[in-house]
Each structure stands twice: as structure tokens, then as C-alpha cells.
Records
---
Amino acid sequence: MIRDAAELPLLDSADAVIEALGGRMAVADLTGRLPQQVTNWRAAGTFAPTTFLVMTTALDAIGVRAAPRLWRMDEPAERA
């Protein structure tokens, strides 16, 4: 079934994304990064842009999405 991504629940913080993906160690394994880097992302509130695709794919698989700004990416402007 094809679904509209806008219908998925939106996670709005790095902490929420990390927890949704199983915590610090799970995100480290998923992204191929050290656990300390995941801790740093949590503290900074943003992720490395190079992890966008792998993390958003994993989020989609569990039925949630996150704002691209968490990866320091521009988001589409809202239409008036």
C-alpha cells in the first residue's frame, strides 16, 4: 500500500528520533557511527546530514517521519 508521508506521525526532536529507532546503540549500529556521536547528536539536537537517507528509511519502516531540519536540511515552503 502506498501511503502519503504527511499522514505519518511527525517526530520533532533528535531525542524522539533516537528513541523511536531503539536508542543510542541501535542508532550507532544503523548509521555506522560511534555511540558517542549519537550522544553528541542528541545534545546538539541535529544529526549528520549524511545519515538522512538511512535514518528516514528506518523511520518510515516503523511508520513515523521526522522533520528534515533535524538533519540541517531545508524543508519545502508551505503553500498559501
---
Amino acid sequence: MTGERRFTVRGTNNAFTCAHCGVEVRPLSNGSVRNHCPACLHSLHVDIQPGDRASDCHGLLKPIGLDQSGKKGWVILYRCQRCGFTGRNRAALDDPEQPDDWNALVALSGLPREG
């Protein structure tokens, strides 16, 4: 992806209802765009590039793994249940209003939960 410019379309950091579990999801307050449910970590395939909302698929993105990036911290790995697209999104553990559920991230990682 060298040379590609990543951008976020203004007005895309909106509240939504999770299509998987029904949680009311609030926008992020840290200047980024929330694209997944902080409770179950599912998302919708609405972007081609992060934040552009240009995909016509709109299939359910199922969290399939967890990665650790030195720059981004924890990153959730996804696969679209409709078209097979795979993507990544930074976990929102630092959001003061509605952070991602730590236990959901731990379960996704395959690590044993703390007592």
C-alpha cells in the first residue's frame, strides 16, 4: 500500500446499533472513527479504505483474531461473512466513554481469561 493515502470522510464517526448483538454504540471521542461494537467486536463491511464508507457489501465483519502492532496497539482482525474480505481495525481500549470490552479481546486472542 505504499503511496496510497488513507483518509477519513468527515461525518463518519457516528453512533450506530450493532447488527450482531444490538448494543447502542457511541462515536469515539479521541478523534478516530469507531467502526466496530465495543461489546462483541463485530462490525459491518462499509469501508474500502478505513473511514471512507465506500463499500457496497455491508456484510457482517466477524472478528477472527487479534494482533499487536507497535504503532497501533491491539488490532482486531476481521473476515466478512458475505464476501470474504479480510480487514483490520485498531481496538479502542482508550476511549473514555465506551472502551472495547477487554474480556472480549482476551477471548478473541485465545488467551485464558483472568480469574
---
Amino acid sequence: MKKILLVIALGISALFTEANAQKQIVFEGVTLPRTINFENKTLQLNGAGSRSKMWMEVYIQALYLSQLSQNPKEIINDNQEMSIRIEITSALVSSGKLTRAIHAGFEKSAGADFNALKPKMELLKGFLADDIKRGDVFELSYNSKDSSVWVTKNGELKGKVPGFDFKKVFFGIWLGDNPVDEELKNSLLGI
């Protein structure tokens, strides 16, 4: 009888483990959900990669889309919900370092349009100004209903940056023709 109960318990445990494995993926020690919900839409994990500075991994980033895609131009120009998820993996990351890195990538992505979009970049930097510690998770999600990028930290909404023009340049930081990291771009695209 004990053996039968043990086999049943192991079988049930295996089913739950398999179900959880299908809902999550572990990437370089960070557990990523295969889907996230944003404004009543289910976004799917398109790809994930790590960002390193000076041979040190600083964060794991994942791209979530309404429909999976390997076409960066389509993703940038798509007016559908999507999200960038960043999990901080180094205690050396501060809000100042993160905002400077995003600012530099944004300036590179915007090119000649940077000055027109600079006030929106400053707004974003304000939403990222809180202290940052290892394990913090940022979701920067585009909402097509109000054409804005929603900034959340550890599940708490910090604010919204308006404009489809901002969204295109923002996602271009990692997916544009001149991304901050070509290897990370390919990882986010699942290539």
C-alpha cells in the first residue's frame, strides 16, 4: 500500500513539475516566465539574453511579444503590446549606471530625432531613479491603447512614457540597426 501511495505521489509531483517547466524557463540562472500578462493580453517569450559590461553579466533581458517574430524592423514598428523584461543580476548595477546606459542606447537609436525625444527620455530616467539591487525586475511594456511605454519595477507601476515614436526608438535600443549589443539582439530575436 505504501508503495502504491508513493508511486501515485511521485506521479502527481511529476505532472506538476512538468506543468511548471512549461510555464518557465531558466536562462543563466534566472527563471523567466514563458508568458506574461499585460493589460489583459498574453505576451509570449520571444527570446532572452544577457548584457555584460567588462566581462561581467549585469542583467538578463527578455523580449515578450503578442506574436513571435525574428524580424526586428517589424517588432519596432508594430503597434501591438510588447514588453522588455530586465532582471538585475549584479550588485554593481545602480540606478545611475542603468539610466546612463539606457540613455546612451536611446541616443544611439534615436539618431537625429534625439533632441525631439529627449524630454521623454528624461521622464523615463525619473521612473528608474529608485535604488536598484540584485534581483530587481523591470518590465518596460508598450500599451497600444494609450500609445505609451509602462515602466514597472518589481510589479509596481512607476509611470508611463507617452508616444509611439518613443516606443519605436526605445525598442530600437536593443533591436535597431545599430543596437547596444548585437549578440543580445540576436538572442532577443531567438536567432
